[in-house]
Design brief:
Blueprint: H1 5-13, E1 17-21, H2 29-53, H3 56-79, E2 83-88, E3 93-98, E4 104-109, E5 115-121, E6 125-133, E7 136-140, H4 146-164
Antiparallel strand pairs: 1-2, 2-3, 3-4, 5-6, 6-7
Helix pairs in contact: 2-3
Amino acid sequence: MSLNSKDLASHASTPDFVAELTPYRSLGRMGFLWLMAFVSFTCLLSGLMFLVMGAWPVFLFMALDILIVYAAFKFSYRSARAKERVTVRRDELKIEKFHPSGRVVQHVFNPFWTRFEVNRHKEYGILSMRLTSRGRELDIGSFLNPDDRESFAFAFGAALNRVKV
């Protein structure tokens, strides 16, 4: 079987590995609504008790607690919009970092010159993952949990080694 230049170009541009890394959030939308309802109810009930006793500033602080919990979760959900897309082809290794603001930063490496370094701890597993190539360094998957880091490192390392052969 012979391949012409058109077949070679299409074969080279087909991704050998694609992964989209997203941060894990254990509390979904309904869980957030239930949590906010519980926090609001308990804070307002406690605040009303203090208000009846004449300690009205405590009621204001309880209302402030509700706002602080709400803001903290909103910031957490906003940061969850960050993601990374990793694409490995025979001719390029591309990392696209999507920031919560919507900004996208692309990093392109030559897979033959790129090393995948994993910083592993005996008890905690993978602490960090990094790509290095010709003096450039790029951390990837920093927001992943330990199990996801392990599975990604295994699959990505295998894919990178495959394209180098």
